[in-house]
Design goal:
By secondary structure, this protein is mainly α. The chain has a domain at 23-49 and 108-213. 64% of the residues lie in helices and 0% in strands. The radius of gyration is 20 Å and the shape is globular. It comes from Corynebacterium suranareeae. This is Abi-like protein.
């Protein structure tokens, strides 16, 4: 019994370490993903609006407005709350929130939900899905300029897999029956479709494969 407890604790400690290594890789991937999409959406919105206007701070052009409204407003609230907690001695104390402040408080799910929906039960004629395709074709596809992905299907599934894995590790769910090595290729491929220099960096810094290889017997 005592021996079994010791092995169980060793396995649990390894699982915690694996979760932390996955979170690190996913966190970096999320920043790269959102920055790349944001750049293209900002250009698109400026063109649609006819002048430079932050699509995160102010109402964006349609259909970006309807696709992001709730999540965009929530990100603004989180950014303002974070700013309110800022120390009075901080250089930005009392300053209004910026576009980058809101961007940093967006949720991963928002980026998944503006990509073309290639889910098994997705209705391509639904207005939301038509709007997703329009944004992909007019803006977001250029965020993944190195991908051969005209319909956005490959990018959609990569981001969807990462969103699911992110939720799992955030809640410390078991990874024992998850093919971590297969799924962790998705962030590398996703970043590679954005910038080859960044994929070299993220693969060089990720510890997921190393930690996974040390799974206790």
């Amino acid at each position: 019994m005592e021996g079994n407890k010791k092995r169980a604790l060793t396995l649990y400690r390894w699982s915690v370490e694996l979760t932390a290594s996955i979170q690190e890789t996913l966190g970096i991937t999320e920043v790269i993903l959102r920055n790349s999409i944001d750049n293209q959406l900002q250009r698109w919105n400026d063109n649609e609006k006819g002048s430079p206007t932050s699509w995160l701070l102010h109402e964006p052009a349609r259909p970006l407005l309807s696709l992001t409204q709730g999540k965009r407003l929530e990100a603004q609230k989180r950014a303002r709350k974070s700013a309110d907690l800022c120390s009075e001695n901080h250089s930005r104390s009392g300053q209004p929130i910026t576009h980058d402040d809101v961007l940093a408080h967006t949720m991963f799910g928002m980026w998944k939900d503006i990509l073309p929906n290639h889910g098994l039960n997705a209705d391509p004629n639904k207005i939301e899905n038509r709007n997703r395709r329009r944004l992909w074709e007019e803006a977001i596809e250029m965020a993944f300029s190195l991908a051969d992905d005209p319909t956005g299907e490959t990018t959609y599934w990569r981001v969807t897999h990462l969103h699911g894995l992110r939720n799992r590790v955030s809640h410390m769910d078991s990874l024992f029956n998850v093919d971590v090595i297969d799924i962790i290729n998705d962030p590398f491929a996703l970043v590679g479709s954005i910038d080859p220099a960044l994929v070299d960096w993220i693969t060089g810094t990720s510890t997921v494969r190393s930690v996974h290889s040390r799974r206790p017997k």
